Amino acid sequence: MAEDRYVSPLSERYASKEMQYIFSPDMKFKTWRRLWIALAEAEHELGLPVTKEQIEELKEHAEDINYDVAKEREKVVRHDVMSHVYAYGVQCPTAKGIIHLGATSCYVGDNTDIIVMTEGLKLVRKKLLNVINVLSGFAMEYRALPTLAFTHFQPAQPTTVGKRATLWIMELLLDLEDVDHMIASMRLLGSKGTTGTQASFLELFEGDRKKIKELEDRIAAKMGFASCFPVSGQTYSRKMDTRVVNVLAGIAASAHKFSNDIRLLQHLKEIEEPFEQNQIGSSAMAYKRNPMRSERIASLSRYVMADVLNPAITSATQWFERTLDDSANKRLSVPEAFLAVDGILDLYLNVADGLVVYPKVIEKHIMAELPFMATENIMMDAVKAGGDRQELHEKIRTLSMEAGKNIKERGMENNLLELIAADPAFNLSLEDLQKAMKPERYTGCAKEQTEEFINEVVAPILDANKEVLGMRAVINV
């Protein structure tokens, strides 16, 4: 790390080496060479004067890029693509005359952008599946453990710890659907020429439009894509970048929601994120266990959600067949969205895989509120014992208010059961009332919903992708 210059925290602290390589110069320039080879092969196959010997020479030097030659040439010509065409030609003297034949800079630049984003989406998909897998195990382990549910962060009817986890998983499944749709929608720019009219290729193929179409189909197939854009200007529509980053922002939103829940649960001391043996929570307060991983998820997620404006504005402000004010913005906004989401998913996987649950604290919290939540059942039992439903409803309302006042104004424990037992209208003993205080009676179908969701919805997806499961996240800081 250079100490005397700015280095992006996304590469130094957050993103994995795998994602960093996908967006690295080496990946880009090697993809350029693969595209030049695909172009040469397709042109040869369609009868242009490109020889097998020239293609073999290009293939021999597809990986060993002479970066020093390209950098020196760029100082002279101030053009990155032509610098690399020149450098490739130095290594391939026989083929140098046919490199980039008929193409414009966007042939390598834009096609590479699509290829790189597709590879990035595939890695995101892999990590997304691993997070879903870990959360699914957590959900099943705690599918029956009652916990206090909240609406408006106010105590509501109980749920289970596992059922709550299914809510996190459901959002990730929606994200997975978006990622899969986006990967399936990715297509190359193809070989469209300077304004998208393919005029240069029309000249090369002497007016044979069928061969021009075949050229693009062959290039797409060689690069592993089903198709190219049917029409374009010089560039592919920048709306593709908007769509991709929107999908990434959706993942960030899901992760942010999860991180909020974990931070609140850690405040309640019910569930904690992993905390290492020698980890320091605060420089001043040695006892603290701050949820720093979840906080980092929230922080990076906020960045990605805000980043969607960049490709959206870039797409909206393109002029006619192309303008270059997209270039600098794309170099920042698209790769950094991927790097940030990569870091988010590593953190998500790490937190989900190391969640610590404290059942006794969870039970304490639920039991403090359960008498209020059990009042309907208590009223029904009292009616069965001969009471008047309307009279009992008013009495429970009044006694609940009294118990709430005792808790809030006097700092007492919840004494609603004692108050009900002391009222002869209910004809219920304190022992009878305490028997009703079983949290599992009030969790509805939470356990069964969790089992059905994991077994019937999630498991088939995980089973179909089992070859990518088993990842462990490495957190740098």
Helix-strand layout with pairing:
Layout: H1 9-14, H2 17-22, H3 25-45, H4 52-60, H5 67-77, H6 80-91, H7 105-141, E1 146-147, E2 150-151, E3 154-155, E4 159-160, H8 161-185, H9 199-204, H10 209-222, H11 239-267, E5 271-272, H12 292-307, H13 309-316, H14 327-353, E6 356-357, H15 359-373, H16 375-384, H17 389-410, H18 416-421, H19 430-435, H20 446-464
Helix pairs in contact: 3-4, 3-7, 3-10, 5-6, 7-8, 7-14, 7-20, 8-11, 8-20, 11-12, 11-13, 11-14, 12-14, 16-17
Structure notes:
- This protein is an all-alpha fold and 477 residues long.
- The protein is 64% helix and 3% strand.
- The strands form three sheets. It has a two-stranded antiparallel sheet with strand order 1-4.
- Helix 3 packs antiparallel against helix 4, helix 3 packs across helix 10 and helix 11 packs parallel to helix 14.
- The longest helix has 37 residues.
- The radius of gyration is 31 Å and the shape is elongated.
- About 1% of the residues have low confidence.
Question: What fraction of residues sit in β-strands?
Answer: under 5%
Largest sheet: 2 strands, antiparallel
Average pLDDT over all residues: 93
From the helix content, strand content and strand pairing, which structural class follows?
Answer: mainly alpha
What is the N-to-C succession of helices and strands? HHHHHHHEEEEHHHHEHHHEHHHHHH
Distance between the termini: 15 Å
Helix content percent band: 55-70%
> How many helices in DSSP terms?
20
Please tell me how large the radius of gyration is: 31 Å
State the total count of DSSP E strands: 6
Low-confidence parts: 282-288
How are the strands of the biggest sheet laid out side by side? 1-4
Shape: elongated
